[in-house]
# Entry
Amino acid sequence: MLEDRIPPSTGLLGRLFGPLLGLRSHRTVRTFRRDRLATASLIFLLLVILASVAAPWLTPYADQGAGEPNILEKFSPPGLSHPFGTDQLGRDILARVLYGGRTSLLAAFSIVLIALLVGTALGALAGYIGGWFDEVIMRVTDIFLAFPPLLLAITVATVLEPNLANAIFAIALTWWPWYTRIARGQAISLSERAFVQAAQGLGAGELAVVRRHIVPNLMTPVLVQATLDLGSAIITVAGLSFLGVGVQPPTADWGAMVSEGRLFVQSGVWWLATFPGLMIFLSTLAFNLLGDSVQIVLDPRARNG
# Structure
């Protein structure tokens, strides 16, 4: 029982992520040792994250990565001075890709974190409390799920001023219901467990039971879903930027770079859209492969599923 393995002294974060932190390290090592694709994906993602954070120090064209034009070198093909070439404004594509990683990864993690926190909290409360509260939450959830998530996100982002913050809000607004459903189902099951009934018998209030007993023990499927959703979040953010309702110039973003570069592909300037598009593809693939192994680590039964 997870509740018995999480000491009360670990605090809120320890209790929330206890199911993940309490895993046996040898199971994690064994899983990643067997799955070389997941190991390669983890290494790739760590390198992308580190390179994006350290972008100003990794490229001599940091000002171009931030949006400064250099017209004299526009449309330079990939070479020694510009390994990924330059764009229509003469900006170094490699620098733009590094800076775009900052934007895309920040947006992806923010979207998943917001959706996870909101959806898990509402789902846990609805599943445990039940009654009219559960009915209201689930009807609102059904309304959101009735719309295609991407279409709803585009609509919200279009109504709001197009920028990174509003794009994050628009996407997170369409994703929280999935976490609500997962958390609610787990909470209904956990509410019948002996340790929850014991807490009730000792006089613990509803919020205390949810915070200390329900949420920590339903985090496993939620965290697995969050890992898988990171790749989808990158694609969705890129899609909004591609359509012009996400990140706005001169801020670098992989989706916006693909949108700008596609206009010049038929003119032979293939590198503008290729490299940011490749980063979207590889990052999404890496998160999906990593998510499969995370699922096995957190829930060994998934290996036989």
Q: What stands out?
A: DSSP finds 16 helices and no strands in the chain. Residues 93-129 form the longest helix (37 residues). The radius of gyration is 22 Å.
